[in-house]
Task: structure prediction
Amino acid sequence: ITIENQSKDTVQLISRHWDVFDSLKELETIDGEGVIGNKPVIKPGKSHTYSSGCLLASPIGAMKGHYNMAHLGSSENIEVEVPTFKLAAPFAMN
Result:
């Protein structure tokens, strides 16, 4: 996953929220601080890349969610939406 700061301000990733959809079980909600144990500061025009995963009971699913960012020049918090994206095991893709 790569998060790119396309604003003119420095921000810090504070927390995340994910809704994980699995075709064989109920919705799973994941909330937590930072990403992979980090709360990266991302300067304008820069990005932060990390690897992560989730366990699914089926070969097909989807995720959506948001990141909570802190604007370091003010006390403003920003919620950055991540639209739904598909999760599919390579053998399940057509």
Remarks:
- The chain has a mean pLDDT of 92.
